[in-house]
Automatic annotation (TrEMBL):
Residues 3-252 form the NAD-dependent epimerase/dehydratase domain. The lineage of its organism: Bacteria, Pseudomonadati, Pseudomonadota, Alphaproteobacteria, Hyphomicrobiales. Its cofactor is NAD(+). This is UDP-glucose 4-epimerase. Pathway: Carbohydrate metabolism; galactose metabolism. Belongs to the NAD(P)-dependent epimerase/dehydratase family. PANTHER family: UDP-ARABINOSE 4-EPIMERASE 1, UDP-GLUCOSE 4-EPIMERASE. It catalyses: UDP-alpha-D-glucose = UDP-alpha-D-galactose. Residues 328-348 are annotated as: Disordered. Signal peptide: none annotated. It is an enzyme of class 5 (isomerase).
Amino acid sequence: MTVLVTGGAGYIGSHMVLALRDAGRAVVVLDDLSTGFRDLVPDGVPLVRGDIGDADLVAATLAGHGVTAIVHFAGSIVVPDSVKDPLGYYLNNTVKSRALLAAAVAGGVKHFIFSSTAAVYGEPETSPIDETAATAPISPYGASKLMTEWMLRDTAAAHGLTYAALRYFNVAGADPQRRAGQSFPRATHLIKLAAQAALGERPYLEIFGEDYPTPDGTCIRDYVHVSDLARAHLLALEHLEAGGESLVANCGYGRGYSVREVIAAVKRVSGIDFPVLKAARRPGDPAALVAGVTRIGATLGFRPALDHLDTIVADALAWEEQLRRRRDGAAPLAPQDESRIAAAPAAG
Ligand SMILES: NC(=O)c1ccc[n+]([C@@H]2O[C@H](COP(=O)([O-])OP(=O)(O)OC[C@H]3O[C@@H](n4cnc5c(N)ncnc54)[C@H](O)[C@@H]3O)[C@@H](O)[C@H]2O)c1
Ligand SMILES: O=c1ccn([C@@H]2O[C@H](COP(=O)(O)OP(=O)(O)O[C@H]3O[C@H](CO)[C@H](O)[C@H](O)[C@H]3O)[C@@H](O)[C@H]2O)c(=O)[nH]1
């Protein structure tokens, strides 16, 4: 009953490893450490360093650890990079997912959970978007993920494994116990960058476009706390293990915040003002992306626990501070005082 977490040394995967461990599950991580970090894998969790496309390594890992389920996070994630290097993205996200899936079938794996993305919807015409909306990705990244969803659907039908393809909206925040967080120095995500600006690690933050058809002219996104997201995966795994049907489900909160609202939250929670500059639109950014969340609630019984923008921002800020302390050799931050989370005012 061991769960293989691919990409378990990365941002979201490391939170899934924590959620599985906290639930008492046996876990093994497969990660090539291309954007991941060995120290995000907790002590006692085996880390197999290697490529998900390496069929022999995956077969040996599945057999050696008695793997019955795979949670597949490993991949390349930067949308503009996928436009510059589509073949690299199709290789890492699609071709290698195919190899992993083939090894899963050969190894008798029963359940497969896959990190999909709101990018499969492209430029949606409705907001919130539910899972029945047309999929029309506008980037190779989104297309590479949608093709993997299709491979999963067809492979599950042919070989009897069950799967969940979870379409994440904007993942942010960090483990409230300060054990993991977004650690990649060249990360491009708004809340991470704003937290760095607040802590003086970058001189300013840019707003990419203020002329969108939204109330304040900036893009709206549905920010989901990474620890809630990990819990949704755990529910999906339990659902499949209990004999539940395969599913495709959005992961978000069903509520969006604009770039300006996010910046205001980071300034409010940190108590620090930082320079904000106007910049041109970033190509390929839809004006608004908000998840329809009926399905994940109804199918998995998912109920958010950390769905306040200020909570997400507070945890992101604390993780940046934690990274700085590690760099400086200072004592780590104490785990989050949960009463502070409960007391955090709702933003908006
Ligand atoms: N971060 C988001 O907001 C977001 C949104 C939607 C979907 N996703 C998806 O979630 C997944 C995890 O994203 P993340 O933000 O944690 O990114 P990340 O870069 O922190 O994690 C990816 C991990 O996969 C590993 N990896 C990459 N290619 C590999 C390979 N070929 N073999 C073995 N290991 C490999 C990396 O070393 C890294 O540890 C990705 O599949 C991504 O597409 C992320
Ligand atoms: O310095 C910045 C960074 C971002 N933004 C804006 O903030 C919003 C959020 O941007 P992120 O880069 O944080 O996230 P994205 O919405 O672009 O991307 C996320 O959602 C995508 C789905 O559409 C993919 O899944 C991707 O992996 C995931 O990070 C966008 O409007 C972006 O233009 C800024 O204004 N300034």
